[in-house]
Structure formats: C-alpha cells, structure tokens
Specification:
Number of strands of chain A: 10
Structural class of chain B: mainly beta
Structural class of chain A: mainly beta
Number of strands of chain B: 11
Low-confidence stretches of chain B: none
Shape of chain B: globular
Order of helices and strands of chain B: EEEEEEEEEEE
Number of helices of chain B: 0
Helix content of chain B: under 10%
Mean pLDDT of chain B: 95
Largest interface: A-B, 28 and 23 residues
Oligomer: heterodimer
Strand content of chain B: over 45%
Low-confidence stretches of chain A: none
Largest sheet of chain B: 7 strands, mixed
Shape of chain A: globular
Order of helices and strands of chain A: EEEEEEEEEE
Largest sheet of chain A: 6 strands, mixed
Radius of gyration of chain B: 14 Å
Chain lengths: 109, 121
C-alpha cells in the first residue's frame, strides 16, 4: 500500500519559517491535503489541493508538492502554531484509497 | 456550515461490538458525491482511515479492519454509523466522523469533535 513519510518532529524559533515535509512515491502527481491538530482537538484543514488555503487560514501557511516530496511551510511562526501536522492523499485503484502521513509535531522554541 | 457530532458507548469490553453514530447538521447524508467517513486515532498515534460510505450505497474500508467494520447511513435520522465487531484493546481510540469537500480527491473539511472509545476488561 502507499506510504506517506513525515519526520516525527520539527522545531523552530518564533518568527522563523517551519517546513514540514511529506514523502511519498511520486507524491507530486497526487493531490495533497494538510491538517493541523492541537492537543485535545479534532484536525483542522490548513492546506488543500497542494496549495489552497481554506477560508480563515492565515497567509503564513503555504503548500507545495513536486517529485517525491510535499511541503507545508509556515512563515513567521507563532506559539499558537505548535501542533501536530498530517498530510493526506487519495490513492486511486487500491484497497486503501485514503492515506495519512504519520504526523509531524511542530515545536515552537 | 456542516456540523458533525459523534455519539457512542465510551467504555467497552473485549469481544463486544462497537456502534458509533454521527449526527449531521446543516447538511444531508442524502447529498450525493460526498464521502461520509470514519477516522480514528489511537492514543499518542496518528490518524487512521477506517472507511467511508459514498452515495448509492458504495462503501470502502481499510483492509486491516475490513472483516470487522460496517459503515451505513440512516437518511431518516440524518446520521451515519460505524459498527466494529470483536473489539480488542487495540481498538481503543478517539473516533472521528468526517465529511469531505466534494469533488475529485477531496480534503476532509468537516470533522466531528471525536469520541473516545476505551476497550478494557
């Protein structure tokens, strides 16, 4: 089955840019969605279709995808951005069409 | 704005059958072209897709759970449900219901708050 690989943790100082990656075979040819999950809360969509910000998501959040890596970038990181981040794709023609990455814990130093 | 709310037993014993319900507000489970989906999260772990109900009765399930899971829709109550048989401690998790944005390869835009299910003897 298709596997999405995320680093378990990323640390960044406030005001800097955090980059969270999601690796998968030819992920650039798929559509990637990103979710933010804070402790005790349900996930929230922060980037859809590789790079689209839903209404209400700050412009500091951006996404890109190419080759075998998709990236979620958070510029001017704030303490409130500390959370777990998950990438997700659809995989056609398989018995496991919805795949999530293992998640990355973003720590704001 | 679609709203989803899970309900279920909370505590279960091994070998029992888990039944969870997701009540939908400001939207209809009869709406075509949406994936009415269940996702779970084991303690301290990541998100795991369980399965979905698509329009016209099409369902798809995680292969690791397929032999034990059923997802169905009750249009009269505007709800969709998850049934998971023969639960074990490994099924202890927060269970989320979710709905996608529609379209091709959609994101999950709407989530319930989640309900914790603990399996313990």
């Amino acid at each position: 089955s298709y596997v999405l690989t995320q680093s378990p943790s990323v640390s960044v100082a406030p005001g800097k840019t955090a980059k969270i990656t999601c690796g998968g075979n030819n992920i650039g040819g798929k559509t990637v969605h990103w979710y933010q999950q804070k402790p005790g809360q349900a996930p929230v969509l922060v980037i859809s279709y590789d790079r689209v910000r839903p209404s209400g998501i700050p412009e500091r959040f951006s996404g890109s995808s190419s080759g075998n890596t998709a990236t979620l970038a958070i510029s001017r990181v704030e303490a409130g951005d500390e959370a777990d981040y998950y990438c997700q794709v659809w995989v056609s023609g398989t018995d496991h069409p919805v795949v999530f990455g293992g998640g990355t814990k973003l720590t704001v130093l | 704005q679609v709203q989803l709310q899970e309900s279920g037993p909370g505590l279960m014993k091994p070998s029992e059958t888990l039944s969870l319900t997701c009540t939908v507000s400001a939207g209809s489970v009869s709406s075509p072209n949406y994936y009415w989906t269940w996702i779970r999260q084991r303690p301290g772990k990541g998100l795991e897709w369980i399965g979905y109900f698509y329009h016209s009765g099409y369902t798809d399930y995680n292969p690791s759970l397929k032999s034990r899971v059923t997802i169905s829709v009750d249009t009269s109550k505007n709800q969709f449900s998850l049934t998971l048989s023969s639960v074990t401690a490994a099924d202890t998790a927060i269970y989320y219901c979710a709905r996608d944005s529609g379209g091709s390869y959609p994101s999950f835009d709407y989530w319930g708050q989640g309900t914790l299910v603990t399996v313990s003897s």
